[in-house]
Amino acid sequence: MLRVENLSKSFTIHHLGQTREAISGINLDVAKGGFLGIVGRSGSGKSTILKSIYGTYRPDTGRILYDSRDHGPIDIMEIGDHALIHLRKTEIGYVSQFLKVMPRTTSLELVTQSLLEMGVGHVEAQAQAKAALEHYDIPESLWNNYPNTFSGGEKLRLNIARATVKAPRLLLLDEPTASLDNASKVKVREAIAKLKAEGTTLVGIFHDLEFMEGLCDSVYDMTNQEMRHALA
């Protein structure tokens, strides 16, 4: 489903006149329906890998090969902006620690819009959106509120709801349990396990290694830049 070959990315800090290497020589692959966990110290480039796969960053070298439902086998680094936007709407989901949304859009509208992009009818989309908000413990009193009034944990749960409700073919998870309490972590784990059982391919970054046990099929260790079997 996904293969990353010899991926490298550097960033230029213009006011210092410096170029800093974020990742170099990254090679990994994930089978269809598999779950790859990426582990490593802070600053090792884990998020850079996910953002490169999602197309937020343009790597300096390498290939990101993805087996698209609508486009067939493609290199994400070579497709145009319109094709990339289409992939994000219909095939590839991304959950980050931060919620970035259009202003004056309610939480219910945000999750409903995710389903409308998948071709779901409005009535059904709104019903599924409400179910997702309930699952992630977003109080009904907040459904018609703007997310900029939410707490950090509420924003993260909303972000997860928006991504998982679409059941994307490929889901990228950048610290999806950061700032969540144990009860919320359990709900996230349940949702991830359900998506995986239904065929979604996943790549995730976690500092909470216990959360990964029993979920991941394989792990990519940034320290040694190597793949290994799932955690016992």
The strand line-up of the biggest sheet is 6-7-8-3-9-10
Arithmetic mean pLDDT: 88
Shape: globular
CATH-derived topology: Rossmann fold
Biggest sheet, in brief?
A: 6 strands, mixed
Distance between the termini: 24 Å
How many domains? The number is 1
Roughly how much helix do the residues carry, as a percent range? 25-40%
- Poorly predicted tracts of residues: none
How many helical stretches? 7
Number of strands: 10
CATH structural architecture: 3-Layer(aba) Sandwich
What's the level 1 CATH class? Alpha Beta
Structural class: alpha/beta
CATH superfamily: P-loop containing nucleotide triphosphate hydrolases
Spatial extent as radius of gyration:
18 Å
Task: State the order of secondary-structure elements, H for helix, E for strand.
Answer: EEEHEEHEHHHEHEHEE
Share of β-strand residues: 25-35%
Organism: Salinicoccus cyprini
Domain ABC transporter: 2-232
Keywords: ATP-binding, Lyase, Nucleotide-binding
Pfam family, one: ABC_tran
